[in-house]
């Protein structure tokens, strides 16, 4: 049995050939180097679910994920509560390997309107049906971008809770011609009173 181990204060990954049949993986790490190791592991080529939430992963770590040919089968990517910012979103939006994603959680990642613009021009996120952008720095202008993203016509769930989209942003989302299939929208947020 081939085994290799890496470790840091919060992560020990044991890579064995048996991981080739794993469908989902949840990992706690604080290192972009550990994320790089995950992204370059051919043992994870059949992985469809990857949860790296709460790991302080920055844009460099996200770049490893977005450029990994071994993660091309992912259908669900959970990056909740990291530190990717707008640059990390750019890597995901431009990825040629993450085109099978149907569920994408980017909540609490310091993403602003610039990050939403990257998503808006993405060709690779058209299969996403569930998108969580809660707890970021998106305002009404960002909501306007989201409402006009044509590739999200397959979207069924959108979470914008905890952003500052206001009443104007809610109107953009509610009137979007691309959200005809959406059955769940969470825009519980700070709205301005008239």
UniProtKB/TrEMBL annotation:
Alphabetically, which GO biological process terms does the record hold? Answer: nucleocytoplasmic transport
Out of the domains of life, which is the source? Eukaryota
Which molecular function term from Gene Ontology is one that the record holds?
Answer: small GTPase binding
Q: Which organism is it from?
A: Naegleria lovaniensis
Q: Key word Transmembrane helix present in the record?
A: no
> Any keyword rRNA-binding?
no
Q: Spell out the Pfam families in the cross-references.
A: LRR_6 (PF13516)
Would you tell me the protein name for this molecule?
Uncharacterized protein
The uppermost taxa in this organism's lineage are: Eukaryota, Discoba, Heterolobosea, Tetramitia, Eutetramitia
Q: Which InterPro entries has this protein been placed in?
A: Leu-rich_rpt (IPR001611), Leu-rich_rpt_Cys-con_subtyp (IPR006553), LRR_dom_sf (IPR032675), RanGap (IPR027038)
Q: Which UniProt keywords apply?
A: GTPase activation, Leucine-rich repeat, Repeat
Instruction: Please provide one cellular component term from the Gene Ontology annotations of this protein.
Output: perinuclear region of cytoplasm
